[in-house]
Write a structure and sequence with these properties.
By secondary structure, the chain is α/β, with parallel strands linked by helices. It has two domains: 174 residues, 3-Layer(aba) Sandwich (Rossmann fold); 177 residues, 3-Layer(aba) Sandwich (Rossmann fold), CATH 3.40.50.2000. The chain is built from 13 helices and 13 strands. The strands form two sheets. It has a seven-stranded parallel sheet. A six-stranded parallel sheet has the order 10-9-8-11-12-13, with helices on both faces. α7 links the parallel β8 and β9. The chain is globular.
Length: 369
């Protein structure tokens, strides 16, 4: 079997890491996996794991070049002759719809998020099947577009229990980061994920300023970076840190491949997104696998992961501002939790995600949809 994955870019983030994990599983099954993306550092990992990479612009939203890029994609598909195509975002999905008019290749529209309701976003329901990472996104698409339940496959993202294992960490890396980020003896609050306006890092920084009044040792570490075209967002956050006098309390750690090691240095992991619900929230689940409690806004995928009082705290949407997050983070920092890893590993099984994903590909090839 040959599968083609269409991804805008392979730089960083939960979606991209999911593509890397499925590539590994597809290759292990003896199938061929081709990842088509404009660019990205994770493409090297795809090739190292046995997948193939084709660099093609399936990212640009420029309508003036869309037809030309769709023709390029059609030529690629004619050459590769895939059994199934998996489109991971709206732009590659639309390009595929245009390219596939005569080819009629079965495909998956993988809806990773709750995009604004529009004719443009509706393309994520056009696949032969639509895959979502959470029940929340499945219900959102059903309500917004009348998507039928029989066309939906809910496949939660998973925790790689071997990679996110407190007993299997790179100790040399850890010691280096402790020095670099000056975390020793500090209360470490961590945010993980690409720097965008939607991640709520401004809220986290403002919450840090509030917490610093009662917890002078607080250290907030932001693991992630902005894409080249979004560097202004990161610059604005750095300016906010300076404005609030938090130069000694906030660290911009940049993109890090050893996420498990980074999470192990945290006392609490925070998802301060208040604008658009996470479809799943991989970093939250991975934090729990590292025995780290989580604070998040009570909407979207966080509702499937965080349980107030048991493994962290959910902040009600109406209270999800800097003060609300500061209160929640303070409460979690002063609370002792038991084993957070075992229930997280059981709930978000890596093997379950892989088997459901591979079964979906097989069902499309066999026409069992």
């Amino acid at each position: 079997m040959k599968i083609v994955q269409l991804v805008p870019a392979m730089e960083q983030g939960g979606v991209e890491r999911g593509v890397v994990e499925m590539n590994r599983a597809i290759v292990a099954r003896g199938w061929e996996n081709v990842v088509v993306a404009k660019n990205g550092r994770l493409l090297d990992e795809i090739e190292q794991d046995g997948g193939r990479v084709v660099r093609l612009d399936v990212k640009s939203k420029n309508p003036l070049t869309a037809l030309w890029r769709a023709r390029q994609l059609r030529k690629l598909l004619e050459r590769e002759k895939p059994d199934v195509v998996n489109a991971h975002s709206r732009v590659p999905a639309w390009l595929f719809v245009l390219a596939n008019r005569k080819l009629r290749i079965p495909w998956i529209s993988f809806a990773h998020g709750a995009n604004s309701i529009s004719a443009y976003s509706k393309v994520m329901t056009y696949g032969t099947v639509t895959v979502t990472p959470s029940r929340y996104i499945a219900d959102y698409l059903k309500a917004a577009y009348g998507l039928k339940e029989e066309k939906i496959r809910v496949i939660p993202r998973a925790i790689d229990r071997d990679r996110f294992d407190p007993a299997k960490l790179d100790r040399e890396f850890l010691e280096a980061k402790k020095l670099d980020w000056r975390t020793e003896g500090r209360k470490v609050v961590m945010g993980v994920g690409r720097i965008t306006q939607l991640k709520g890092y401004d809220t986290l920084i403002k919450a840090t300023a509030i917490l610093k009044r009662t917890i002078p040792s607080i250290r907030t570490v932001i693991v992630g970076e902005a894409e080249a075209l979004r560097k202004d967002v990161e610059e604005n956050l750095r300016a906010l840190v300076k404005e609030l006098g938090l130069e000694d309390a906030v660290v911009f750690a940049g993109n890090q491949r050893k996420v498990a090691e980074c999470l192990s240095l945290a006392d609490v992991v925070v998802s301060a997104n208040t604008k658009k619900p996470e479809a799943f929230g991989r970093s939250m689940a991975e934090a729990l696998a590292m025995n780290k409690p989580v604070v998040a806004t009570a909407f979207g995928g966080a509702l499937d992961i965080v349980e107030s009082g048991k493994n962290g705290m959910l902040v009600p949407v109406e209270e999800a501002d800097a003060e609300g997050f500061a209160r929640a983070i303070g409460t979690v920092l002063s609370t002792k939790y038991g084993d957070l890893r075992t229930p997280a590993i059981e709930k978000f099984s890596y093997s379950n995600m892989i088997e459901k994903g591979l079964a979906t590909y097989e069902s499309l090839v066999l026409g069992q949809v």
